[in-house]
Each structure stands twice: as C-alpha cells, then as structure tokens.
Amino acid sequence: MNAITNLSPDLSRRNFLGVSGVFVLGACLPSCARTPRPPVATEPFVPNLFLALEPDGTVHVTAHRSEMGQGIRTALAQVVADELDADWSRVVVDQADGDAKYGDQNTDGSRSILLNYERLRTAGAAARLMLRQAAAQHWGVGVDEVEATNHEVIHAGSGQRLGYGDLAGIAATLPVPEDPPRKSEAEHRYIGKHAVHVDAADIVRGKGTYGADFQMPNMATAVVVRCPWLGGGVKNILNKPNTAPGLLGIEILDPSASAGPVFNPVGGVAVVADDTYTAMRIARDLEIEWTDSPNQTFSSDTLQEELRKALAQPGTPVPDSEKGDVDAVFAEGMTELSATYETPFLAHAPMEPPVAIADVSGGMCVVHGPFQDPQSARGLVAAWLGYEPENVTVTPTLLGGAFGRKSKPDFGLEAVELSKRLGRPIRVQWSREDDIRHDYFHASSAQYHRAAIDERGHPKAWLERTAFPSITTVFDGGATMPADWELEMGFSNLPYTVENQRMEFAGLRPGVRVGWMRSVCNIFHAFSANVFADEMAAAVGRDPIEHRLEILPASGVLKVPGMQPPEGHGLDVGRLRHVIERVRALSEWDRPRPEGTGLGFAVHHSFRSYVAVVLEASAVNGTPKVSNAYVVLDCGTYVNADTCVAQMEGAVVFGLSLALHGKIDMADGVVAQSNFHDYPLLRMSEAPATSVELVPAQGRLPAGVGEPGVPPVAPALVNALFAATGTRHRALPIKVA
C-alpha cells in the first residue's frame, strides 16, 4: 500500500484524479480467454468520485476525509475495495482536496463512516457490476453467469477470466447503475476485518508527510507572537529589529473584527525568516505593547463561580422535558441526594501543533496543512482573499493528532495573509506554547443533580441542571445559551426511568475561544450523570451495575426532548444494557480484588454508539493508580476491527489524561499553562492494561468510534476511587489528597 509521501503540486496523476474524480479502467492482465481480448481502454471511465483503476490494474480510492491517526483513509478504502472485490494489495489511497463535490468533508463528530458507508459501498458495487456486465457482453453470456472476485471476472462455465483492467473499454460504454446489488455481511472480505493502516509503513519510517514536513520552492517561515488576551492588538513593538541574519520581515496582523472570534486569526506580530529556528528566536525576544480588550480581565476562577451560581437557581427548561411533578415529590420528605460536579477548561494539545503552508500568486491560492475540514477551509480562504472557491486549493497533509482543534483553520488564514503580503510561499509554524495558550478550549462546566430516592436507591424525582459556555459564542457575539445539539450530548437524553424529572440549563459568555474537542459536551454530562448514579447506589449499599440496570427501562428506543437523533440512531436501551452486561463479564466484576483496590463503572451513549467502561484503581500515597481498564463498544457496523480497539485504548489514555491532569487556568485574560510540563498528558507509568471487546455488527447501522470511548472514563475512575478509598471526587481533575 502507498501512503502520502509527497504532496507536491507537480504530481500530475494525483492532481488529475483528485480534481476530476476520474475512474480510469484500463489494463491487460494474463487470462485464459478463448475469445479475442477486449480493446484496451483509451478514455477515462468515470462512474463516481471515489474509485479509479489504472491500466496496470492498480485501484485508486480517493479519501475525502482527513487522516489524523484514526485510520479513516484505510477504512474508506476497505469499504470501496470490498464492494469492488478488489485485491487489497493493489489498492492505493489518494487524498482529496477540499471540494464541495464530495459533500461533507469535516472529519469530526465521529461521522466519517456513518455518513459515507452506503455511498462508498455503492461506488464499489456499481463498478463491480459494470465490470461483470462488460465481461458478459464480451463473452456473449448472461451477466448472471459471471462473477467478479479478487480483481478479475470469471465465467465458470467456460473457465474464461479477465482482469478488471481488461474490461475498462467496454465498461466505459455502459450506464452507471444507481442501485447496484451489494454484498451481504457474510460476504465481506475487508469490512469488519483487520487491515494495517495504509499510512503505517511510511509513518514508522519517518516518510509520512505532516504539515511541518511540506516544502515549497522559495518558501519562508513565519512565527506569530499573539496577544496574551483575546481581542488585543499591537500597540507598539519596543525593540523591533531592523536587520538580523535570516530575518526577512516583521508583519503586524490586526485582530479580526467580527461578531465572534469565529475561525479568523487573532492577530499579532509575525516574524518571517529563512528558517523556523531564526523566526522563533527573534519572536521570543520581541517586546510588544498590546491594546486593551474586554477579555483582558477574564478569569477562569470567576467564570467557574458564576457557573456555580447559575446552578443555584432555576434555569431554562429543556423544551418538552418535564415529566410528572418534581417539586411535589421533593416536598414528600423522601431520602434526598444532591451534588454539584465541575470540569475545567481543557486544551486539545495534539502532538503536532498547528502549521500551514500557503502560496498566493497569480490570482490563485494553494494551501497545504493538517486540516480536518479542507472544504470549509477552502471557503474561508476564498472569502478572506475575495476569490472564487475555484481559485483556491486546500490539500490536507497527515494530521499529527487533532481532536477537533484542526477543524478551525485560523492558522491557515495566517499563512494565506502573509503569503499575499510577501508574494511568496509562507509556512506559519505554531509552537507548543502557542497551541496551548491560543486554543479553542473545551468549555468549563458545572452540573447540579438532585434526586429523591426510595429504599433501593431508585430515583422517584430527578432534577438536572447544566451550565457552560456554548460553542455558539464563537460564531455569534450575542450568544450565551447552550445549543440544543450541545444539550443532546448526554444531558437531554439521559436514559434512566424517572416518573418525575426536570432538565434545566444556563450559559455564560467566556473571555476565550471555545470549541469542540473529542466527545465535546459528553465529557462533562457523562461525568456528572454517571457519578451521581453511582452515589445513588452507594447511598443504599447497592451494587452499582445492578442498580444501574434496575433504573434503566427493560427495552425500547428512548424518546427524547429537544434535538432528535438521525433516523435509525435513537438510543436503544437494549443495546445500552447489553454493553453493561458484557463489561461486567469482561472485567470479572464479581471477582474479589486486593484490599485498597476498587472497581468503578460508567456507561454512555454518544455519537450513536454505546460504550461501557470498568476501571480497576487504587490510591498509592493519595495518588490515583489505574491498573486495568475494560471497555465494551457497540458501534453497529464497523470497518476495521483493530482500529476500533485502538480508538478505545486511546480513549482510555485521553480520558485519564483529562481526569488526572487536564486543567487550563486563566487570569487577567492570560492562560497560565504553556507546555507539557504544566499541562501534562498521561505518562506510560500511569497507563493501565486495557482490554476491549467489540459487539458484533449484526447488520446495524454504522456509528461513531473516535469519540464515544472518552466520556465514560473519568466517571469510572471517580467511582473506582470511591470504591477503593471511600472518598468521592466531584470535580476534575482529581486532586491528590
């Protein structure tokens, strides 16, 4: 398999395939044909955007989503190749540019397979049927007498066979079928099976092309010094260098004026130099006076206190969410539990900081970089320059991690602006400090839960309140309240059986940019709901898993208020119960553990998938230690089994990083943290052994994989530490005693 090894614009074949979506079928392979061989194809064969066959029989699959380590380029190719019944060793993946012809290209929300599974199956199946029709026509037999398998078409009756490329010329004359027959689940060769990622070999050999690897002739490098607080601009450069070896120029970028920060650059002083080291060294020594901004007084501690205050009073009800009479049940004097849960601002901190290369010249613009959504980036670049989208090309490189950060292309627009000014290709390189201090942060939050419970810990009334800065504040200068899609992430779709229930929410404007991060609002909603459910069980001495199963409906699809799930993707309580039962067995929940070791359980439905987690943890000198993690995933139909397991393993590391270390502090508008020494990720010594089970697809619709493993991890840890120590933590990150 080939990977992205060189994304240079002068690779004509790749550009031709990426722009035209051409499917070129033409090859002559050895066969035992008894009739004259078909004529070799001389014209492109174009049945769809995603498939191309070279004359030598090589199949090209165009990946219109971005690769950030989640294996999506491999998975997309597996789907097409399976329905084509191609020889996997002859499949190559080409990266698509951003273009509206592909439809949605935003690689976030764990939707790449969910949105594209059927269209990619159809792309492969249509080509396979056309190749069968071409062979049948050539041999003068019925199409039902021939089969396409492993890169060739066979007529069993005569023993004749032709390679796929042999049939391209005839296939090009046939109409493209709109609804070709597709394989059954039992016939799949690649879907649901293991496949080594197509980029793996190049990555481990240092040959993969990430943003910082990409080179263009006459390229210069820029490093931008940004105002410490959002909205501030350059007042004065106190020590502006006139000359220095390697220095090419100093450019001032004004903060973008708009209703919200959106995805525009925040402004600053750009140091342009021959190389990255020179640009960073000069930028580090600059002394800059900044203009004032309303965000200059922002404090994360103050915002957190305001969130707590918001929970102390009735909020805005989720429409159509109230059931029964919560207040009347509370007035009856039953046993009550109440608790407030808090999570801080979080940074994405991908291993690769943002970087982009832009060349604006001759009325055209070419941009390369680690973009999660090259199509949206293309539109924003075109608007920035006043160009038609057809005059802008945005090509994603490999992404060295992203977690949602690189769906915001502000770093690309910085490169575009500087290239326009200087008339040459410019690479803008962010440092780790830039990345952490100028992120689109995951919002801090607070949740309040109050319940009246019976002698078995079953809630008879349940009041939920949530408060957090909405992502909509990035797009709308007047927005304050959470959007319905944010509430649908683990709040308005709480699955438990409660006859009397009320859901309320509140929002505040932050003084920083907030954005979606891996699993988004599910992080804090799953945390509070799972820990509070555990507290109900503990209050009456019940087993947490038995208690959870009792307060869930026996079966059925949950009817939710507010935002509705896509058709066929409602929360199926039976599937939720199933992952709970399976993780209980996987973890050997009832097996005694050593003294001082506790088991914690959590379950969550997000991105249309179901994930249950059990963590085995202890506290060594007050420091949490997780020894084992057990995860069960039901994501419906999945493409690459190993990728699913790897994503759950990564989710455990990601979730534990947030639970144990994740916290961004801000005072006077300035972020306190700067690098991994004060915003640490999970260390190898902290990582548990992780066991993962996948629920068989059983013909169910595909759902998310990259994000749904994260939300249950932190609450499972809190619940495990309670079981081990008797201490309940209600705020993240967990503070060491």
Question: Which descriptors would you attach to this protein?
Answer:
single chain, 737 residues, alpha+beta, Aldehyde Oxidoreductase, domain 4, 3 domains, seven-stranded mixed sheet, five-stranded mixed sheet, 17 helices, 26% helix, 21% strand, disordered N terminus
Could you explain how this protein is built, in words?
The structure is a single chain. By secondary structure, this protein is an alpha+beta fold. The protein has three domains: 22-203, 2-Layer Sandwich (Aldehyde Oxidoreductase, domain 4); 211-293 and 354-429, 2-Layer Sandwich (Aldehyde Oxidoreductase, domain 4), CATH 3.30.365; 314-347 and 440-725, Aldehyde Oxidoreductase, domain 4, CATH 3.30.365.10. The protein has 17 helices and 26 strands. The chain is globular, with a radius of gyration of 28 Å. The model is unreliable at 1-33 (pLDDT under 50).
The CATH superfamily label of the largest domain reads Aldehyde oxidase/xanthine dehydrogenase, molybdopterin binding domain
Estimated structural class: alpha+beta
Strand fraction band? 15-25%
Range of helix content: 25-40%
> In CATH terms, what is the fold-level topology of the largest domain?
Aldehyde Oxidoreductase, domain 4
Distance, first to last CA? 51 Å
What's the helix count? 17
- How many domains? The number is 3
Average pLDDT number: 93
Task: Describe the secondary-structure layout.
Layout: H1 12-20, E1 51-53, E2 59-63, H2 72-84, E3 91-95, H3 112-139, E4 146-149, E5 152-155, E6 160-163, H4 168-171, H5 200-204, E7 220-225, E8 234-237, E9 247-253, E10 268-273, H6 276-285, E11 288-290, H7 300-311, E12 316-317, H8 326-330, E13 335-343, E14 355-361, E15 364-369, H9 374-385, E16 392-396, H10 410-422, E17 426-429, H11 432-437, E18 445-453, E19 459-467, H12 484-487, E20 501-506, H13 522-539, H14 544-551, H15 573-586, E21 597-606, E22 609-620, E23 623-634, H16 641-660, E24 666-667, E25 670-671, E26 689-694, H17 713-725
Parallel strand pairs: 2-3, 7-17, 15-16, 19-20, 23-26
Antiparallel strand pairs: 1-2, 4-5, 5-6, 7-10, 8-11, 9-10, 12-20, 13-18, 14-15, 14-17, 18-19, 21-22, 22-23, 24-25
